[in-house]
Sequence to fold (355 residues):
Amino acid sequence: MATISLQKITKDYGNHKGVFDLDLTIGSGEFFVILGPSGCGKTTTLRIIAGLETPDSGKVFLDSTDITDYPPRERNMSMVFQNYALYPFMTVRENIAFPLKKMKMNKTDINQKVEELARILSITDILDKKPGQISGGQRQRVALGRAIVKEPKVFLMDEPLSNLDAKLRVGMRAELKRIQMKLKTTTVYVTHDQIEAMTLADRVAVLNNGYLEQLDNPMKVYEKPANSFIASFLGDPPINFIDAELEKDGSQTFLIIGESRIPINRDAGSYAGKKVMVGLRPEDIKVSDKGIPAKLTFIQPLGRRRLEHFKINSTGMEVIRATSSDQTLSIGDNCFIDFNEEKVLLFDKENGKII
Fold:
């Protein structure tokens, strides 16, 4: 196990591409996820940790050792790529054994380690097959085995599940987490998939345009996002954003949404009388006998749950509600939508920061 520390890392490719002034500390044995959209700097960060890229400025530490200028082979890290990068002319056994052969380990010990690892990864029956003869999920396990076999201090994973179909991804997420918990190896995992981040991470770092936006455990990032970008990036279905105004009447604060005036237990502060953006998670919306007048315009059945699309009568804005499938509302019904005000997120309309 090992601790990784990035101190004031900058890698500027121009046109606002790269990473900028990045500070991160990844704990020993932690499953750490770097999350963000394409081009946000997450793969650049991983490559700097691996030694495949050199930062323009800043330092990389492995435990207390400055490894900023170390070549990849001297960092005691293993990387799993998106495309698996297996040798097609080698068998599964030979692919996994390859790093050990380079380390000049004797043949008996190599065979023992490969067999042991194959049992952990449930690939003993394919050891003598070549990558072209096995499934995508099996190839992913082989790539993982090749990374694990030399017992590195750190695993680096660059969107390793993105080439798998949806069903395989679910199974492999569970498999990855199980293996990492068993081995207790520090793991840095890059993804644009917020479900992977939520299910795998001990902590998640959200990057946007090369800057660190928020760092915390996944549920805290989900429940208390630092800004509207993060709120929109985490959640399936995505969060609803509604234009509103904050009004103060004596000691009471009200949300003005269209023609509806809803009391909330918040201090309006300097935002009294100003326009704000209301964030409502689909699972926090409910149908009530009071609230915001709306019309149900569309239903997406999803087995045991369904997504209901409402149009707010006075503004025309759409709101999506996630609920159980045993609902009685039908398309075209008029109703009131309401919400637990403790779950309401308020954002500055100008800069997107949470209020």
